[in-house]
Design goal:
This protein has twelve helices and nine strands. With 265 residues, it is an alpha/beta fold. Strands 5-4-3-2-1-9-8-7-6 form a nine-stranded parallel beta sheet. Helix 2 (33-43) crosses helix 4 (78-89), helix 2 (33-43) packs parallel to helix 12 (248-264) and helix 11 (234-241) runs antiparallel to helix 12 (248-264).
């Protein structure tokens, strides 16, 4: 049982929902990334999704695209992301870390080399946006053999067949994209989420996290009443980019505390 499974088991036993903030590694500055990760945990994060900068994203909206561009401009790539995780693990051996990104950096790094390096660094799960389940069963198998969770996206347009394919090979949790569009989009319909989750759970045995369009404590609380986890990224990055880089950990801690209080209320 890796850290993700342990954390969700602890949360279930306590009757709580997981809070999963997303930040882009290297943004707003490489020097603050590890402090930012610790601040997220201090604020109440249960898991951290750490974005791997990539120049041609397909699921990220303008806010995360800007974060990625800032990180790339400062020389951050997959190797540096793994270094951030290693540094984080020197003080935190419990909080699960999931790398979220795209296939190109992983394949350029080398799949076997990436899996070995991710495990050594202390990564717990991997979500590759552009790896559909039917095309990466071998990748998922190799991740599981290294005790890393292969995590997949589901969307409002996912068919029962696609949901079942994901349910067959996913571990850790699945990430339900709550609306049609990119990260940071608005108009989240909680009733539509409520209607979709039973379809997902009919085929998926791991926890279900919901993200995209969650921007405040009220919405997070509403989604938390339905899902196993709430994923929030774009609003957090917006708040940080409005302040000097050295203030990012404090801004993130305060925002996550607000969401945590709402989920626990």
């Amino acid at each position: 049982m890796n850290r993700i499974d342990q954390r969700f088991a602890q949360l279930r036993a306590a009757g709580r929902k997981a809070l999963i903030p997303y930040v882009t590694a290297g943004d707003p500055a490489p020097a603050v990334t590890v402090d930012l990760m610790h601040a997220l945990v201090e604020g109440g994060a249960d898991l951290i999704e750490l974005g791997v900068p990539f120049s041609d994203p397909m699921a990220d909206g303008p806010v995360i695209q800007r974060a990625t561009e800032r990180a790339i401009a400062q020389g951050v790539g997959l190797g540096q992301v793994l270094d951030f995780v290693r540094a984080f693990r020197r003080q935190d051996a419990q909080t699960p870390v999931v790398l979220m990104g795209y296939a190109n950096p992983v394949e350029r790094f080398g799949i076997d080399a990436f899996i070995a390096a991710a495990r050594e660094a202390g990564v717990d799960g991997v979500l590759i946006v552009d790896y559909p389940p039917q095309e990466c069963e071998d990748f998922a198998r190799r991740l599981k053999a290294a005790e890393l969770a292969p995590i997949f996206l589901l969307a409002p347009t996912s068919t029962d067949q696609r949901i079942a394919e994901v349910g067959r090979i996913a571990s850790g949790y699945v990430y339900y994209v709550s609306l049609k569009g990119v990260t940071g989009a608005g108009h989240l319909d909680t009733s539509a989420v409520a209607a979709m989750l039973p379809r997902i759970r009919a085929h998926v045995g791991v926890p279900v996290g919901v993200g995209f369009g969650i921007r405040d404590a009220q919405t997070a609380k509403a989604i938390g009443s339905l899902a196993d986890a709430v994923v929030i990224g774009s609003r957090l990055i917006e708040l940080m980019e409005a302040r000097p880089a050295d203030q990012a950990p404090a801004v993130a801690r305060a925002f996550v505390q607000d969401i945590r209080r709402a989920l626990d209320a």
